[in-house]
Amino acid sequence: MELAELEIFRAVAREQSITRAAKVLARVQSNVTTRVKQLEESLGVTLFQRDSRKMILTPEGQRLLGYAEQMLTLAEEARQSMRLSAPSGTLRLGSMESSAATLLPKPLAQFHAAWPDVELKLSTGTTGFLVDAVLGHRLDCAVVAHPGTGTPRNMSMAALGEGLEGVFLRTEELVLILPGTHPKARGPRDVTLRHLAAFSKGCTYRRCAEDWLEQGGDDLRNRLSVIEMPSYHAILACVTAGSAAAIVPRSLLAMYPDATDLQTVPVRSAHTFLVRRAGFTTSAYEAFVRELRHA
User: Fold this and answer.
1) Where are the beta strands (DSSP E) in 160-252?
2) How confident is the model at residue 8 (pLDDT cuts 50, 70, 90)?
3) What is the model's pLDDT at position 83?
4) Do 243 and 193 form a contact (C-beta atoms < 8 A)?
5) What span, in angstroms and rounded, lies between the C-alpha atoms of 76 and 256?
6) pLDDT of 89-110, one tens digit each?
7) Any idea where the HTH lysR-type domain is (predicted)?
8) Domain CATH number, residue 216
9) Integer CA distances (angstroms), 283 to 91, 136, 277, in order
Protein backbone atom coordinates (compact mmCIF):
# COMPACT_ATOMS: atom_id res chain seq x y z
CA MET A 1 0.00 0.00 0.00
CA GLU A 2 1.19 3.49 -0.85
CA LEU A 3 0.48 6.52 1.31
CA ALA A 4 -1.12 8.25 -1.68
CA GLU A 5 -3.59 5.37 -2.04
CA LEU A 6 -4.45 5.56 1.65
CA GLU A 7 -4.93 9.30 1.45
CA ILE A 8 -7.34 8.86 -1.47
CA PHE A 9 -9.15 6.06 0.35
CA ARG A 10 -9.50 8.20 3.48
CA ALA A 11 -10.85 11.16 1.49
CA VAL A 12 -13.51 9.01 -0.20
CA ALA A 13 -14.45 7.49 3.18
CA ARG A 14 -14.86 10.94 4.71
CA GLU A 15 -16.69 12.54 1.80
CA GLN A 16 -18.70 9.42 0.88
CA SER A 17 -18.30 10.54 -2.72
CA ILE A 18 -15.73 10.15 -5.49
CA THR A 19 -16.64 13.59 -6.84
CA ARG A 20 -16.24 15.42 -3.53
CA ALA A 21 -13.06 13.50 -2.66
CA ALA A 22 -11.55 14.45 -6.03
CA LYS A 23 -12.22 18.14 -5.30
CA VAL A 24 -10.68 17.89 -1.82
CA LEU A 25 -7.60 16.15 -3.21
CA ALA A 26 -7.37 18.32 -6.35
CA ARG A 27 -7.38 15.18 -8.51
CA VAL A 28 -9.50 14.13 -11.47
CA GLN A 29 -12.38 11.76 -10.65
CA SER A 30 -11.11 8.98 -12.90
CA ASN A 31 -7.80 8.92 -11.00
CA VAL A 32 -9.57 8.64 -7.66
CA THR A 33 -11.81 5.84 -8.95
CA THR A 34 -8.86 3.94 -10.39
CA ARG A 35 -6.75 4.21 -7.24
CA VAL A 36 -9.61 2.98 -5.03
CA LYS A 37 -10.19 0.00 -7.34
CA GLN A 38 -6.45 -0.79 -7.37
CA LEU A 39 -6.39 -0.72 -3.55
CA GLU A 40 -9.38 -3.06 -3.37
CA GLU A 41 -7.77 -5.45 -5.86
CA SER A 42 -4.45 -5.47 -4.02
CA LEU A 43 -6.18 -6.26 -0.71
CA GLY A 44 -8.68 -8.69 -2.22
CA VAL A 45 -11.68 -7.06 -0.50
CA THR A 46 -14.47 -4.61 -1.28
CA LEU A 47 -13.93 -1.39 0.68
CA PHE A 48 -17.08 0.51 -0.32
CA GLN A 49 -20.73 -0.23 -0.93
CA ARG A 50 -21.61 1.85 -3.97
CA ASP A 51 -24.98 3.31 -4.88
CA SER A 52 -26.09 6.29 -6.94
CA ARG A 53 -25.57 8.78 -4.12
CA LYS A 54 -23.01 7.59 -1.55
CA MET A 55 -19.89 5.50 -1.09
CA ILE A 56 -20.41 3.70 2.23
CA LEU A 57 -17.60 1.80 3.94
CA THR A 58 -17.95 -1.97 4.23
CA PRO A 59 -16.84 -3.65 7.49
CA GLU A 60 -13.47 -4.29 5.80
CA GLY A 61 -13.32 -0.63 4.80
CA GLN A 62 -14.02 0.44 8.37
CA ARG A 63 -11.12 -1.68 9.62
CA LEU A 64 -8.76 -0.32 6.98
CA LEU A 65 -9.76 3.27 7.79
CA GLY A 66 -8.46 2.87 11.33
CA TYR A 67 -5.09 1.67 10.04
CA ALA A 68 -5.02 4.35 7.34
CA GLU A 69 -5.55 7.10 9.93
CA GLN A 70 -2.65 5.75 12.00
CA MET A 71 -0.27 5.36 9.06
CA LEU A 72 -1.01 8.77 7.57
CA THR A 73 -0.67 10.40 10.98
CA LEU A 74 2.68 8.70 11.57
CA ALA A 75 3.86 9.75 8.12
CA GLU A 76 2.98 13.39 8.86
CA GLU A 77 4.64 13.07 12.27
CA ALA A 78 7.80 11.76 10.62
CA ARG A 79 7.84 14.60 8.08
CA GLN A 80 7.45 17.23 10.78
CA SER A 81 10.09 15.62 13.01
CA MET A 82 12.64 16.36 10.28
CA ARG A 83 11.80 20.07 10.54
CA LEU A 84 11.71 20.64 14.31
CA SER A 85 13.28 24.10 13.98
CA ALA A 86 10.39 25.49 11.93
CA PRO A 87 6.82 24.38 12.74
CA SER A 88 4.92 23.46 9.58
CA GLY A 89 2.46 20.89 8.28
CA THR A 90 -0.92 20.32 9.91
CA LEU A 91 -2.03 20.37 13.55
CA ARG A 92 -5.41 18.74 14.16
CA LEU A 93 -6.76 20.19 17.39
CA GLY A 94 -9.94 19.22 19.21
CA SER A 95 -11.69 21.17 21.94
CA MET A 96 -14.77 21.26 24.08
CA GLU A 97 -17.11 23.99 22.87
CA SER A 98 -16.70 26.04 26.06
CA SER A 99 -12.90 26.02 25.82
CA ALA A 100 -12.99 26.87 22.13
CA ALA A 101 -14.99 29.98 23.04
CA THR A 102 -13.21 31.11 26.21
CA LEU A 103 -9.70 29.62 26.32
CA LEU A 104 -8.45 29.22 22.76
CA PRO A 105 -9.11 32.46 20.81
CA LYS A 106 -6.02 34.34 22.07
CA PRO A 107 -3.46 31.49 21.84
CA LEU A 108 -4.83 30.43 18.43
CA ALA A 109 -4.43 33.98 17.10
CA GLN A 110 -0.90 34.20 18.49
CA PHE A 111 -0.02 30.78 17.10
CA HIS A 112 -1.26 31.68 13.62
CA ALA A 113 0.62 34.97 13.68
CA ALA A 114 3.86 33.25 14.73
CA TRP A 115 3.58 30.17 12.49
CA PRO A 116 1.44 30.95 9.41
CA ASP A 117 2.80 27.90 7.57
CA VAL A 118 1.01 25.54 9.98
CA GLU A 119 -2.47 24.52 8.86
CA LEU A 120 -4.52 24.29 12.04
CA LYS A 121 -7.74 22.28 11.88
CA LEU A 122 -10.10 22.76 14.84
CA SER A 123 -12.91 20.35 15.77
CA THR A 124 -15.29 20.57 18.73
CA GLY A 125 -17.11 17.86 20.65
CA THR A 126 -17.58 16.24 24.03
CA THR A 127 -14.61 15.01 26.03
CA GLY A 128 -15.48 11.40 25.19
CA PHE A 129 -15.68 12.13 21.46
CA LEU A 130 -12.40 14.05 21.49
CA VAL A 131 -10.49 11.41 23.47
CA ASP A 132 -11.65 8.71 21.03
CA ALA A 133 -10.51 10.88 18.12
CA VAL A 134 -7.05 11.41 19.67
CA LEU A 135 -6.59 7.70 20.42
CA GLY A 136 -7.91 6.87 16.94
CA HIS A 137 -5.34 9.18 15.28
CA ARG A 138 -8.06 11.46 13.88
CA LEU A 139 -6.84 14.31 16.10
CA ASP A 140 -3.33 15.15 17.28
CA CYS A 141 -4.39 16.68 20.59
CA ALA A 142 -7.52 17.96 22.33
CA VAL A 143 -8.63 20.28 25.13
CA VAL A 144 -10.81 18.19 27.45
CA ALA A 145 -12.19 18.16 31.00
CA HIS A 146 -10.97 15.59 33.54
CA PRO A 147 -13.75 13.97 35.61
CA GLY A 148 -11.57 13.69 38.73
CA THR A 149 -11.69 15.97 41.77
CA GLY A 150 -8.07 15.83 42.97
CA THR A 151 -5.24 18.27 42.36
CA PRO A 152 -4.14 18.53 38.71
CA ARG A 153 -0.58 17.31 39.26
CA ASN A 154 -1.84 14.08 40.84
CA MET A 155 -4.37 13.26 38.14
CA SER A 156 -3.86 10.29 35.85
CA MET A 157 -4.93 10.60 32.25
CA ALA A 158 -5.92 6.92 32.39
CA ALA A 159 -9.29 8.09 33.74
CA LEU A 160 -9.86 9.55 30.27
CA GLY A 161 -8.24 6.80 28.22
CA GLU A 162 -5.26 4.46 28.29
CA GLY A 163 -2.26 5.75 26.39
CA LEU A 164 -2.84 9.46 26.95
CA GLU A 165 -0.56 12.18 28.28
CA GLY A 166 -1.87 15.54 29.43
CA VAL A 167 -0.77 19.13 30.02
CA PHE A 168 -2.79 20.97 32.68
CA LEU A 169 -4.31 24.20 31.37
CA ARG A 170 -6.72 25.64 33.94
CA THR A 171 -9.42 24.92 36.49
CA GLU A 172 -13.05 25.73 35.71
CA GLU A 173 -15.71 26.49 38.31
CA LEU A 174 -18.89 24.63 37.40
CA VAL A 175 -22.19 26.20 38.40
CA LEU A 176 -25.80 25.07 38.26
CA ILE A 177 -27.87 27.60 36.34
CA LEU A 178 -31.59 27.96 36.95
CA PRO A 179 -34.23 30.37 35.62
CA GLY A 180 -34.38 33.61 37.56
CA THR A 181 -37.95 32.74 38.59
CA HIS A 182 -36.90 29.43 40.21
CA PRO A 183 -37.16 29.33 44.02
CA LYS A 184 -33.84 30.02 45.73
CA ALA A 185 -31.64 26.90 45.54
CA ARG A 186 -28.63 25.97 47.65
CA GLY A 187 -28.28 22.30 46.70
CA PRO A 188 -29.69 19.53 44.50
CA ARG A 189 -32.67 18.91 46.77
CA ASP A 190 -33.91 22.43 46.03
CA VAL A 191 -34.19 21.86 42.26
CA THR A 192 -37.86 21.70 41.25
CA LEU A 193 -37.48 21.48 37.46
CA ARG A 194 -38.10 18.29 35.48
CA HIS A 195 -35.30 18.60 32.88
CA LEU A 196 -31.53 18.93 32.71
CA ALA A 197 -30.24 20.53 29.49
CA ALA A 198 -26.85 19.04 28.57
CA PHE A 199 -24.64 17.75 25.77
CA SER A 200 -24.69 14.09 24.72
CA LYS A 201 -23.12 11.33 26.81
CA GLY A 202 -19.36 11.62 26.85
CA CYS A 203 -19.49 15.21 28.13
CA THR A 204 -17.57 15.49 31.42
CA TYR A 205 -19.70 18.42 32.57
CA ARG A 206 -22.87 16.39 32.02
CA ARG A 207 -21.33 13.61 34.11
CA CYS A 208 -20.53 16.13 36.86
CA ALA A 209 -24.10 17.45 36.70
CA GLU A 210 -25.64 13.99 36.99
CA ASP A 211 -23.34 13.04 39.89
CA TRP A 212 -24.23 16.24 41.75
CA LEU A 213 -27.96 15.90 41.14
CA GLU A 214 -27.80 12.28 42.35
CA GLN A 215 -27.43 13.78 45.81
CA GLY A 216 -31.00 15.08 45.50
CA GLY A 217 -32.40 11.64 46.34
CA ASP A 218 -34.82 9.29 44.62
CA ASP A 219 -37.51 11.92 44.08
CA LEU A 220 -35.24 14.16 41.99
CA ARG A 221 -33.65 11.17 40.25
CA ASN A 222 -37.04 9.83 39.14
CA ARG A 223 -38.36 13.26 38.14
CA LEU A 224 -35.40 14.72 36.25
CA SER A 225 -34.75 13.75 32.63
CA VAL A 226 -31.93 14.87 30.32
CA ILE A 227 -32.62 16.94 27.20
CA GLU A 228 -29.61 16.65 24.88
CA MET A 229 -28.66 19.92 23.21
CA PRO A 230 -26.20 20.68 20.37
CA SER A 231 -24.73 23.92 21.78
CA TYR A 232 -24.47 26.22 24.78
CA HIS A 233 -26.73 28.69 22.97
CA ALA A 234 -29.47 26.05 23.00
CA ILE A 235 -28.76 25.04 26.61
CA LEU A 236 -28.98 28.63 27.85
CA ALA A 237 -32.15 29.20 25.81
CA CYS A 238 -33.82 26.25 27.56
CA VAL A 239 -32.82 27.54 30.99
CA THR A 240 -33.86 31.12 30.21
CA ALA A 241 -37.23 29.84 28.99
CA GLY A 242 -37.75 28.21 32.40
CA SER A 243 -37.93 24.63 31.13
CA ALA A 244 -34.61 23.20 32.34
CA ALA A 245 -31.59 23.46 34.61
CA ALA A 246 -28.01 23.08 33.41
CA ILE A 247 -24.45 22.95 34.69
CA VAL A 248 -21.89 25.08 32.84
CA PRO A 249 -18.44 26.60 33.41
CA ARG A 250 -18.77 30.03 35.08
CA SER A 251 -16.28 31.49 32.55
CA LEU A 252 -18.81 30.82 29.78
CA LEU A 253 -21.52 32.95 31.37
CA ALA A 254 -19.42 36.09 30.90
CA MET A 255 -19.95 35.69 27.14
CA TYR A 256 -23.75 35.84 27.47
CA PRO A 257 -25.03 39.22 28.73
CA ASP A 258 -28.56 37.86 29.25
CA ALA A 259 -27.19 35.24 31.66
CA THR A 260 -27.26 37.82 34.47
CA ASP A 261 -30.96 37.03 34.90
CA LEU A 262 -30.15 33.41 35.78
CA GLN A 263 -29.69 31.98 39.24
CA THR A 264 -26.32 30.25 39.79
CA VAL A 265 -25.36 27.67 42.40
CA PRO A 266 -21.70 26.55 42.86
CA VAL A 267 -21.27 22.83 42.15
CA ARG A 268 -17.58 21.85 41.91
CA SER A 269 -14.36 22.56 40.05
CA ALA A 270 -13.16 20.68 36.96
CA HIS A 271 -9.64 20.65 35.55
CA THR A 272 -8.94 21.22 31.85
CA PHE A 273 -6.07 19.43 30.08
CA LEU A 274 -4.55 19.31 26.63
CA VAL A 275 -4.24 15.57 25.92
CA ARG A 276 -2.23 13.72 23.27
CA ARG A 277 -1.22 10.14 22.54
CA ALA A 278 1.73 9.10 24.68
CA GLY A 279 4.95 9.89 22.83
CA PHE A 280 3.30 12.02 20.14
CA THR A 281 5.13 15.21 19.27
CA THR A 282 5.66 17.48 16.29
CA SER A 283 7.17 20.92 15.97
CA ALA A 284 3.67 22.36 15.45
CA TYR A 285 2.35 20.68 18.61
CA GLU A 286 5.27 21.91 20.73
CA ALA A 287 4.83 25.46 19.42
CA PHE A 288 1.11 25.35 20.21
CA VAL A 289 1.76 24.18 23.78
CA ARG A 290 4.12 27.13 24.27
CA GLU A 291 1.44 29.56 23.10
CA LEU A 292 -1.11 27.99 25.49
CA ARG A 293 1.28 28.34 28.42
CA HIS A 294 2.07 31.97 27.57
CA ALA A 295 -1.64 32.76 27.31
Assistant:
1) 164-178, 195-198, 225-228, 246-249
2) very high
3) 62
4) yes
5) 40
6) 889 999 999 999 999 999 999 9
7) 1-58
8) 3.40.190.10
9) 10, 21, 15
